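User: I need a structural model of Periplasmic binding protein domain-containing protein from Bowmanella denitrificans for a docking pre-check later this week. Nothing fancy, just the predicted structure tokens so I can convert them on my end. Input:
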Amino acid sequence: MLKLFLPLACGLMLLGPPAGAKDEPDFVAALANAAKADKIVIDAEQAHRLKNKQLTAAMAWHGASPWISAVNRGATDTFERYGVKVLVTTDAQYDPAKQVADIENIQALNPDMLLSLVIDGISAKVGLQKTVDSGTKLVLLSNPIPGFVHGQDYAGIVSDDMQGMGQKAAEAVNRHLQGKGKGKVGVIFHDVNYFVTNTRDQAFLKALEGYPGIEITAKKGFVKEQDTSAIASAMMLRNPDIDVIYVAWDSAAEGVVEALRGDGFSKVKVVSHDLGVNNLLDMAQRGNMLASVADRPYEIGATMARVALLAELGESAPLFTLVPFDLVTRDNIRDVWQQAYQADVPRIINLALGD
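Assistant: Understood. Predicted structure tokens for Periplasmic binding protein domain-containing protein:
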């Protein structure tokens, strides 16, 4: 999934609407009625109409990373297929104030469509509202904007299947422990009110309840990524019989893998989310990293573009459209990387795999 960052802290993207906020839809419940990405289709007649419109688009991203580059390529390739001119792509460098300025500059260009992953929905809301009011069709990546109304202020939200990813992570833990029929798990969760990670973490915990032989012996939240190493060391000091540690996302799991390696817990495995080179390298070398559940960023970008294009034709989309995910293990690193990024796996991982 996306590179996570908390503004002015560990940096995740934006916080989702506050829990229990008035007049906000139940976004978790809405996931049950989400569309699948492969159902968002542009037919031949619609394609012809779109090509005659000479549409324009802009993309306002939160930062730069291999993940967002893949999202951007997916969107750009799709727009080009339908004759859309991309006016500008911005990188906010994980700075909410810069993204506000980026959105203001985009508004001056008056694009027909805007795709964005917003860092801080509250600070960006005014600029986005002006952009929408001028006729631009807005499609969001993963995170809602507080107070925005689906179908009125934005065409839809494209995201990974957060609940499915959490459930798949629990399945990976169970599969690893099947030989013993039981096991002990440590959980390092994201202790911030943030829609994406909260939903995944809760789905993992709930799914784990379905495996009665597996016991959660330690559970600790974090705000800053750099704190996970110390959390893991303390967790293992108190619970040296833990078999597997679940961590909310890949870059946060890097500190956990380092701590386990440094403290001599070579047999303790880690399960997380997303694709990161460091942890995939550890997985390829048969280290602590057992498995990760990863989304498909190229497909996310392509789907966002299709939702926006259909909105230009007056077609509505569900509140959420979900892109598939993959369980990554040593056996399928190359295939999943290719699926996610539409590119070959980095050479260093290829060398470590060796086969």
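Before docking, keep this in mind: Confidence is low (pLDDT under 50) at residues 1-21.
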